[in-house]
């Protein structure tokens, strides 16, 4: 971005959420003001990059599995710079004379997801509230918050929607994510009511998704394992979700099947 930032230096950075692929560059933007929701700032120091670097170098089966997801990332020497300014709900920023509206829509993907709206341009930056061509992963939930975030965006006057992953889209991309979440919520809830184990449910729903016209082409379909866990926790707060390592193992197992 050097050509652009020479004449227009970055003065404000928004972290949409606390995942490393969205905030580990904070230390590289000089004295720009970093802004996030308070929930995101709170989550940002939970997983130190050194732990991820160690997992990437680990020679055990867990390290092997971790590398299958994150082997392309270099987590060494990352200095986590926490946000300078936090907000709850909504915050309006002036960025180079232009209004940018931050709207907290989490917890959904993480504990504190934010979308950034540029009203005069009709643009929404969604962070990981949208995955296009890939499967949304609902780490925090509830799914209803994520569906509500989709409805909020569908009601906005916006033609250009920039997802956290995948190509730039429009409202059709929002509708696809909403449809996926609604489908998963319904399928997982029915299996929970029938007393089915969460991982068994995830495997069954993965097979249904693989065969479906609507969602069969989505990448990273193994994420259904995490999404079903989140639905089960919503329906039964006593439901115990396995640790992150086990969740990665399950995602890998579903994608290998
Ligand atoms: Zn991401």
Précis, in short:
The protein is α/β, with parallel strands linked by helices and 257 residues long. It has helices spanning 2-7, 20-23, 38-44, 49-57, 61-70, 143-154, 171-193, 198-211, 224-235, 244-256, and strands at 12-14, 33-37, 85-87, 90-95, 98-104, 114-118, 123-131, 160-165. The mean pLDDT is 93.
List keywords for this structure.
single chain; 257 residues; alpha/beta; 3-stranded parallel sheet; binds zinc ion
**Strand portion:** 15-25%
Distance between the termini: 41 Å
Question: From the helix content, strand content and strand pairing, which structural class follows?
Answer: alpha/beta
Give, in order, the helices and strands: HEHEHHHEEEEEHEHHHH
| Rg estimate, integer Å | 19 Å
Compounds present?
zinc ion
Query: How much helical structure, as a percent, in the residues?
Result: 40-55%
């Amino acid at each position: 971005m050097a050509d652009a930032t020479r004449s227009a230096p970055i003065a404000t950075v928004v972290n949409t959420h606390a995942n490393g692929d969205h905030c580990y560059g904070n230390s590289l933007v000089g004295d720009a003001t970093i802004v996030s929701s308070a929930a995101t700032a709170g989550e940002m120091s939970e997983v130190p990059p050194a732990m991820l670097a160690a997992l990437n170098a680990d020679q055990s089966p867990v390290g092997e599995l971790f590398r299958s997801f994150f082997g392309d990332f270099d987590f060494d020497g990352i200095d986590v710079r926490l946000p300078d300014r936090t907000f709850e709900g909504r915050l309006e920023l002036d960025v180079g004379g232009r209004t940018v509206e931050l709207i907290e829509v989490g917890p959904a993907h993480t504990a504190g997801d934010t979308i950034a709206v540029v009203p005069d341009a009709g643009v929404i930056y969604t962070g990981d509230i949208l995955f296009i061509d890939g499967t949304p992963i609902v780490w925090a939930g509830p799914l209803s918050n994520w569906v509500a975030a989709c409805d909020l965006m569908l009601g906005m006057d916006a033609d250009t929607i920039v997802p956290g992953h995948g190509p730039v889209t429009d409202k059709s991309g929002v509708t696809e994510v909403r449809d996926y979440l609604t489908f998963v919520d319904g399928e997982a809830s029915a299996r929970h009511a029938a007393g089915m184990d969460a991982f068994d449910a995830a495997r069954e729903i993965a097979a249904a998704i693989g065969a479906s016209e609507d969602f069969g082409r989505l990448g990273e379909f193994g994420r259904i394992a995490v999404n079903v866990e989140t639905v089960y926790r919503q329906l039964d707060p006593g439901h115990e979700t396995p640790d992150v390592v086990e969740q990665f193992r399950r995602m890998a197992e579903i994608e290998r099947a």
